[in-house]
Amino acid sequence: MTELAFILLTGLFLPLFPVSMGFNWLLGRTGNSWLRALLLLLWPQIGLLLITNLEFQVPGWLLSLALATSVLYAFRVLAIRDVGQWCGFLATSSWAMLWIPVHADIPMFHVQLYALGFSMPLILMTFLGSVLEQRFGAACTGLYDGLAESIPRFSTILVLVVLAIIATPLFPSFFIMTAMILQAMSAMPAIAVGVAGVWLLWSWAGAWLLQGLIIGIPGEERPADLQSGAVWGYVSILGLLIAAGIIGTRLLS
Amino acid sequence: MEKIILIVPLIPVLSALLTQLSSARFGHESVRISITGSLLTFLFTVATLWFVLSEPGSHAVSLFDTAALLLLDPLSSLMATVIAGISLIVHIYSRRYMADESGYCRFFILLDLMTASLLVMVAAGDLLTLLIAWHLVGVLLYFLLGHNTRDKSAWRYAFWTKITYRLGDLPLVIAAVLLYQAYGTWSLPLLFEQVMAEPDAHQVFGLRLPDVVAALIAFSAFARSAQFLVHTWLPYTMSGPTPVSALMHAGIVNAGGFIINRFAPLFVQSAEVLHWVFIVGLFTAVIGSVLMLTQNDIKKSLGYSTMGQMGFMIMECGIGAFSLAIYHLIAHGLFKGTMFLGAGSVINSARKNDGVPKEDLYTFIVERKPARQRLPWLTMAAVTLVVPVFILVSTHWLISQDYFQKQSAVVLLFFGWITGAQLIFSTYKMGTQNMRRMVILAIISFAVVVLGYTLISHAFDLFLYPDPVFREQLYAAADIHIIWFDALIVLITLIIIFGWFITFLSGRDGASKNRYASSLWLMFYALTSREFYLPHLYTLMTRRLLRLAERLNVWLRWI
């Protein structure tokens, strides 16, 4: 009973279906982008803290449920058009896989860094989504074509952030995914193949989102592009992420 | 001196950065930085090749302590020189060709980054560096193919490419992880050393580790080199800019042949996988060629031509002729690159003058005039079948007397014989007024090609795999049981002779009068001209999956 209660509680923060729906419900009802960013930053860390404090041994079957949750959200995100929801689903899909390093007894500090590596680009995406909401009234794919031409600086940053989310080298998420496949291979090789499948779905989702926003002939109305200060801010954070990714390769050796 | 390999990929990265930073101030002129960078890169790669030629062997250099290992060996230096050379030509060509396109500087930046990724890929000395470069090539190609952001169709097919590449990346990741888990190192030289020393030391899913890993790497190679079933992206990506098509067909698509060569010490330990590689390659070569001949869209036809060539390249790996695959990919790359880059000027000049000489070839192919003079068909049949054998055997005997003891050699000679016989047979069918002259010219040109091909491929063999024992192991690994081998050769010979016989009959009697055979032929033609409905099938599957995802979202209230 205690075990079930624990799984339900931690499953809310380190997503396990169906309690994983709680996070997406909450994120959907949070309008303020700073609050959303805070949620994306802290949510998985709370789950990891719970695991540390309650000293719970993760049973093997839980890995299958975690992978199923990850696959489910990675698959469902393919049909998502709203940028906010897209972030939520991608976050759920990526955090669910944190059960793998937890099960593999990887030092908790490293797992917390994994969570941060997943969350940071999603936070950037949340802010980019709010920029779209300010300019167009909604952050949705397929509503306005040709952002690459109408707001090129924004589009460049959007492309880089999406690449960071879908685990493209040299961003930390790439090394985290590789590490997770390595850890899963030791425990259950089938899980490792599943993780690779999730990675493929993310790539699909990322390309779908980009093509729904930046491609096409722009409308006559030209919205304001990102200001150079904001661009440098985003570029600096992305640069830091790349540096963290390169340094993080040592965790794989 | 070996540290030069670290500089090679850094130059294009630096030139991309400088082009980006200077583009706001200098506009289109900033691409001169990119072109200069690409020239420098080429010069440095030539220096690496020179270094490897003067100091044979493999030299490993790392960027940070033990991480980011780059290899300076015959394979990396040769491939790097080819890549840098093609990249330089593409850069120079694009300067004027892309001048009116939007995102002019972005295009050059992406080209530079692609060059850097390809250079790192061919020089990677550890699995992580290889994975990074391998993955980045796919991502950068996606953006290069979709350079025109207004063209939704270009992006659609760029997406096909990306998703197929990702499908191929993941087996490589799993292979890398399996190797690391088994041997505890990411370094390729150390891994190969351990695999060669103890090939049966580890197992996965009850199978030998080298077999599993080789199969995974082979699948990665198939996706990258457009083998059958994972090929549909290739013929449809012609909407991208012409220089990108040239770069793709001349360099990127060849990565499959490269990766199999890089992991040659693993494939040596995995004979069964090599046999599968041969079958997939052969099947792709045949299907690609058939699809090429039945397409009425010239661009698609070119795409399928590349697919057929890639099939041949993979097939060469499957028979243990690894170095020949490298020679093939370089030769094909230069040929296809020239075709793409020269297409524009050819079309332009053809508008003024078609330039087709009104000679025998023209009258035969275009005007379809009947034969005016024929040599006795028995004499021609003898010439057709015997002369290519004589040329092939004597040329290869010059190189090595024990050449014919290898099965792979016999397979290659067999293909050479078919090609030669087909050439003379077609010449015979042309029906020229001066038949003797035409046949002699055909035989001389065939002999020159065979001699050149044999000499160069032998030189490649010695350069890429200097160890004679390892060379023998490569060929031996690809061998199959002699009875199967002989049976296959006889079967294929009979099929080919039957094909020639049918061609001869159809040429003599005109159109076939057999209604059943005609309808069967029409069905086959419809199937091939519609590319076996594979693109439609994949599109349908994608739509179904998206609909399912949407339905799931509705059921789960979008949370």
Structure notes:
The complex is a heterodimer of chains A (253) and B (559). Chain A is built from twelve helices and no strands. By secondary structure, chain A is mainly alpha-helical. Chain A has one domain (2-252). The radius of gyration of chain A is 18 Å and the shape is globular. The N and C termini of chain A lie far apart (40 Å). Chain B is mostly helical and 559 residues long. Chain B has four domains: 1-125; 159-355; 357-479, no CATH class; 513-559. Helices cover 77% and strands 3% of the residues of chain B. Chain B has 23 helices and four strands. A two-stranded antiparallel sheet of chain B has the order 1-2. Chain B has a two-stranded antiparallel sheet with strand order 3-4. In chain B, a hairpin with a 2-residue loop joins β3 and β4. In chain B, α5 (127-145) runs antiparallel to α6 and α11 packs antiparallel against α15 (322-352). Chain B is globular. The model of chain B has no long low-confidence stretch (mean pLDDT 87). Chains A and B meet through α2, α4, α10 and α11 of A and α5, α6 and α23 of B.
List the helices and strands and how they pair.
The complex is a heterodimer of chains A (253) and B (559).
Chain A: H1 2-13, H2 21-28, H3 33-54, H4 60-76, H5 83-96, H6 99-103, H7 108-136, H8 147-150, H9 152-165, H10 172-187, H11 189-213, H12 228-248
Chain B: H1 4-26, H2 31-54, E1 59-64, E2 67-72, H3 74-97, H4 104-123, H5 127-145, H6 152-183, H7 188-197, E3 203-204, E4 207-208, H8 209-224, H9 233-236, H10 242-250, H11 255-262, H12 264-267, H13 271-294, H14 298-318, H15 322-352, H16 360-365, H17 377-399, H18 407-430, H19 435-464, H20 468-478, H21 482-509, H22 515-529, H23 534-555
**Structural class designation of chain A:** mainly alpha
> What is the total domain count of chain B?
4
Which percent range describes the beta-strand content of chain B?
Answer: under 5%
User: What's the end-to-end separation of chain B, in Å?
Assistant: 58 Å
- DSSP helical segment count of chain A: 12
Q: What's the pLDDT, averaged over the residues of chain B? A: 87
Task: Report the uncertain regions of chain A.
Answer: none
Helix content of chain B: over 70%
